[in-house]
Amino acid sequence: MPKLTDFSTYADAQRHFSGAALWALFDGDRGSLNITHECIDRWAGGRVAIRIAYADGSDQALTFAALSAWAARFAHWLNANGVQAGERVAIMLEPSLPYYAALFGAMKQGAVAVPLFTLFGPDGVRLRVDDCQPSLLLTTAAKAHDIGALPATRVVVPDERFMRDLQRFESVFEPKTAATDMALFQYTSGTTRDLPAAVRHTHRAVVVVAAAALYGTGVRPGDRFFCPSSPAWGHGLWHGTLAPLGLGVETGTMSGRFDPERLLTALRDYRITNLSAAATHYRMMKNCGTRYPIALEKMSFTGEPVDSETLAFAEQTFGTRLCSMYGTTEVGVILADYPGAADHIPKAGALGKPIPGVKVEVQTPDGVPCPPGRIGEIKVWRHGAWFPTKDRGMVDDDGYFWHSGRADDVIISAGWTIGPAEVEDAIMKHPDVAEVAVIGVPDATRGQVVKAFIVPKRSPGPDMAHDIQDLVKTRLSLHEYPRLIEFVTELPKTPAGKVNRKMLRERT
Questions:
Q1: Which helix (H) or strand (E) covers residue 299, if one does?
Q2: Are 491 and 365 in the same domain?
Q3: What's 369's domain CATH number?
Q4: I need a surface site. Which of 39, 74, 241, 295 has the fewest CB within 10 A?
Q5: DSSP of 228-257
């Protein structure tokens, strides 16, 4: 009987996809299911599960068998230390053996894993700890010192001594979770002043995310997959780790401070065939100037739009089409470009088409579907109602969806509606621009005007701002050019790598 992983075309995806066919890829069912079993235990053997590219240039390969054993030991350790099923276990570590032992061990035992970004300061950690009330927080000695005592949370440092102690526990643990039991709390990226609520995922979420793997990143058995995003965030955790492992596919990641040259060497040395990265990662690889002969079979991006210069770089460098994958932490992936599907041609700048089993519309504020070409809000049908993504967009005559910015990012100037992405794309065509972010700022006459924050590749001369304004006027229109330009050394980013326009608005 063919499986969904046996098909790669867009037409076959529409023809063969069903909920039953998706569940058939897993051992568990709607009653009993465990993420660690599906991602690690059932594939146990000498085959590599995860490759880690460390910032210092070293590498580590973890097999399915090793991860299964270490996760079991950690699960037994949780029981020995009185941690009950359903209690939260926060993990604030870079990708490493201790990180994966804790992540998969907690879910195997029935606890709820809570990955936390390692660059959070004490205030950011405390806000999230106060929110999810974990019994344990695993982190480094340095971070433990910075955070200090947490009244209701035990802080554990999984150093070499801790890992040696784990070896006294059995290397086999039989999970007993229901598909509807809680498995993960996932925090979206945000500032410590505006804490996003944790998105709560049950064990059955590993089945749901498989659709994103099949059609968003194009994962198939035999791929050598890589995702440089931090597993503290949705892209790195779900699409970079759990989704490929759930299909028995080797994956890779980075540990420590991100370096685009280190990413390129890892892609070359690991002989990666399928890369999924944030738009920022591709932009940084373009700007670093290093070039290696790397041929990918599939390639995807997410997070924010990719400018046309970066798109051209990626496709020329890696020899394949760069495919969009769009979604949110709350709803998952809903639009994609079907990497590896010869009968689906991505349109540059578009978000792609709905993945099978998902209904997506662009609607007016009154909830009426927009005709092709009209901008509205992107919404997805879930749980019997239309759920807003808070993103604006449109659908073209061919059924491709297009992004028109976050609802709060749209600029209204003298009655004109301006999307920041198209202005940024035009500015990026200037040879001396490394990065740019565009926002609307108040103006007494026009309501708002366009302001561009630009990271230049070299010290800006007296005419550079004028040249950029003329470039936008020529490529777009007279009303869309940035009337205000500020040159900066760097752009504020969310922990997930997206430009933080909220911080730019607060600075203005």
A1: strand 298-302
A2: no
A3: 2.30.38.10
A4: 295
A5: -S-TTSHIIIIIIIIHHHHTT-BEEEEESS
368 and 338 within one domain:
no
Q: Is residue 48 part of a domain?
A: no
Chain segment 279-325, per-residue pLDDT in tens: 889 988 998 988 899 999 999 999 777 888 999 999 999 999 999 99
Instruction: Find the helix or strand (DSSP H, E) in which 286 lies.
Output: helix 279-288
Q: Are residues 142 and 255 in the same domain?
A: no
- Cβ partners under 8 Å of residue 121, min gap 6: 146, 192
Q: 222-248 pLDDT, tens per residue?
A: 999 999 999 998 899 999 999 999 999
**For the chain, how far is it from start to end, CA to CA, in angstroms?**
60
Residue in the block written with tokens 């290093």: 290
pLDDT digits (tens, 9 = 90+) for 153-202: 999 999 999 999 999 999 999 999 999 999 999 987 654 445 667 889 99
What is the C-alpha separation between 140 and 152, in angstroms, rounded?
19
CB 69 within 8 A of CB 272: no
Query: CB–CB of 378/391 below 8 Å?
Result: yes
Tokens found for residue 61: 């390969």
Is residue 51 one of the residues assigned to a domain? no
Note whether 39 and 186 are same-domain residues: yes
Distances (CA, A) of 262 to 43, 115, 273, 471, 489: 29, 24, 17, 34, 22
For the CA atoms of 373, 379, 380, 384, the dihedral, rounded to the nearest 10 degrees, stands at -120
Is residue 186 within 8 Å of 234, Cβ to Cβ? yes
- Position 165 scores a pLDDT of 96
Read off φ and ψ for residue 304, nearest 5 degrees: -165, 165
Query: Do 297 and 342 share a domain, yes or no?
Result: yes
CA distance 178 to 169: 24
Position 357, amino acid: G
d(CA 115, CA 250): 21
Residue range(s) defining the domain that contains residue 251 = 1-30+205-349
**String of DSSP letters for 437-491:** EEEEEEETTTEEEEEEEEEESS---TTHHHHHHHHHHHHS-TTTS-SEEEE-S--
When pLDDT is cut at 50, 70 and 90, the band that residue 422 belongs to is confident
Strand partners, 104: none
The reply to whether 385 and 433 lie within a common domain is no
Residue 232, token pair as written in the block: 């503290």
CB atoms inside a 10 Å sphere around CB 163: 15
Which residue has 């073209």 as its token pair? 396
CATH number at residue 316: 3.40.50.12780
Residues in the chain: 508
